[in-house]
Each structure stands twice: as structure tokens, then as C-alpha cells.
Amino acid sequence: MTLLDAKRAVRLVRQHAKQWGLDSHQIGIAGYSAGGNLAMNLAANFDSGDPQATDPVERESSRPDFAIGLATWHWRQKTSPFTFRKDSPPVFLVHATNDGIKGGAPIEMPKEIQADLLKLGVPVKMAIFEEGAHGVGNLIPQRVKSGFPPAKWPELFLSWYQSLN
Fold this sequence. Notes:
Layout lengths: L1 H15 L11 E5 L1 H11 L21 E5 L20 E6 L11 H13 L3 E6 L11 H6 L6 H12 L1
């Protein structure tokens, strides 16, 4: 059900992009932990929309233009459950080496996601941090102010993503 919601969200934003002052070709998804799982699931399982749909939103593509997975979690699994495609969107991953040690998300899964995407020729970048554990992607104000290295992931993403275009 969450995958259907994510597809609908991308379609809805794309349908209203002009009205909302957005670029309809710069619609992405980012998620933390189980949300990272959802972002990767959408990056692997999108569609081009249904041109025959009576609902104009459903005519839009559900393919995100990029996907960000922060501490991507899949029930503590070390292997990726996702089957990506050559037309999957660029993926940016953020993970901490100390995640998954006492619960959380083992680093092996995002490393496998990265390897799978590289084999397909899909742009992928992984920012690995030595600290942050399962909260690696949280932009807590104190972390941002103090220069906590994982709190720099948005800048790293933007620099990488802009280099693709």
C-alpha cells in the first residue's frame, strides 16, 4: 500500500508542478529507515502512467527523477530485496558504518544496492560516515550547527546530483 501512495504522490506533484512553481522533471523521493526502503522500492517499481486513465493524475509517470535512501532499512536484512532497472532514477545513499551493530540497518544492503545500480549503469553515490548510527540522516538543528559530518548529506547530494546534469 505504501508503494501505491508513493507512486500517487509523485504523480500528483508532477501533475501540479507548473501550478506550484516546480520543475516537473525534478521530482524526487527521499526517505529515512523504512522510508529509505520505500524510496528504493519506488526507484525499482515505477511506471509511466496510464494514458487512458480518466483521472489526469494517473496519466503521469510515477518514476521519481532521483531517490535518496538514508539508513535504508529492510528488517535488518543484509541483502537488497530490490530489483532495479536500467531506467531506474539516480540514487543517493547515506549510511553510517556503525548502523546495524545494535539493531538498525546493516551497511551491507546499501552497498549491494550501489553495486546493483552500477552494474545497470544507473548513477549512484553512497556517502558513508563513521558516526551517526541509525540516525545518520537526521538533520537535528544541533548537528547542523555544530558541523556534524553526516548533517552535510544534503550538500553532498546537491553537488553530486547537479554534476549529473
